[in-house]
Design brief:
Blueprint: H1 16-39, E1 45-47, H2 50-66, H3 68-74, H4 76-81, H5 86-101, E2 105-107, H6 110-131, H7 136-142
Antiparallel strand pairs: 1-2
Helix pairs in contact: 1-2, 1-6, 2-5, 5-6
Pfam families: Phage_holin_4_2 (PF04020)
InterPro entries: Phage_holin_4_2
Keywords: Membrane, Transmembrane, Transmembrane helix
């Protein structure tokens, strides 16, 4: 039997967990986009349907995975000078790029883009905190 860190065996992991986690993440982010769009809190942020929101969540994740690291390195001096606050601008830029690529996603204005990216970032942070797997669940299941 192959042993993993913390004394857990490789067979104690459920095969569904790695597959379901990103799917649920995309659904949560799409629901957050739809809620933000339908709530009227940000009139300049509009998503035309759940499909557009779901595609937007996937494209935003791809932009964050592929473009953001490169832009982070290019803007590192500005990020350091602003004590990290420039990362909020990078998040807004990723959302703006997503809205330009995805049909059915509309953003009007820089402030709307910045606030929408802040809200979606908070949703993502909460999701990561809730879905974090630190091994305690596996230990609890064994008992």
């Amino acid at each position: 039997m192959v042993r993993l860190h913390e004394g857990r065996s490789a067979t104690s992991r459920t095969p569904e967990a790695p597959v379901l986690k990103p799917i649920v993440y995309f659904l949560v982010m799409a629901a957050a986009m739809m809620t933000l769009s339908m709530s009227g809190v940000l009139p300049g942020f509009r998503v035309d349907g759940f499909t557009a929101a779901l595609v937007g969540a996937v494209v935003l994740a791809l932009a964050n995975a592929l473009l953001k690291p490169v832009l982070f390195l290019l803007t590192l001096p500005i990020t350091i000078l602003t004590l990290g606050l420039f990362l909020l601008v990078l998040n807004a830029l990723m959302l703006w790029i997503t809205a330009r690529v995805v049909p059915g996603m509309h953003l009007e204005g820089a402030l709307t883009t910045l606030v929408a990216s802040l809200i979606l970032s908070l949703v993502g942070m909460v999701w990561n905190a809730i879905s974090k797997d630190d091994g305690r669940r596996h230990e609890r299941d064994r008992d």
